[in-house]
């Protein structure tokens, strides 16, 4: 009799894993279906070689961002002038009215926060579809 009790205990110890696997697959399908796929916004930047195509400097709008986050604008052989960050868009529009160009060159100090550079780029893109070239200064 003791042998039969021992065999019964062993058979009672088996656990059926099928219901647990069903639940896991159902949860997996639920999370896959309910996941929203978000396309990240990014700025496409092509790093060119030093000897490749040059931008015509006489026909460009220059924006210089100093380490103190001051924004200086110059175009059409005019002296550079200090511009407020919120007024970049209006100044770019004025520069485009006075000078026909498709290029804007941003010359930023390497210590400038990226936020400032990208804000300036957003203001430039808001005015028209200009080609933006970025340079860093040590």
Automatic annotation (TrEMBL):
Keywords: Cell membrane, Membrane, Protein transport, Transmembrane, Transmembrane helix, Transport
Gene Ontology BP annotations: protein transport
Pfam families with a match to the protein in the record: ExbD
Membrane topology, from the record: Single-pass membrane protein; Single-pass type II membrane protein
Main location: membrane
Molecular function, one GO term: transmembrane transporter activity
Record's GO cellular component terms: plasma membrane
Residues passing through the membrane, by range: 20-38
Cellular localisation: Cell membrane
Family (UniProt): Belongs to the ExbD/TolR family.
Name of the molecule in the record: Outer membrane transport energization protein ExbD
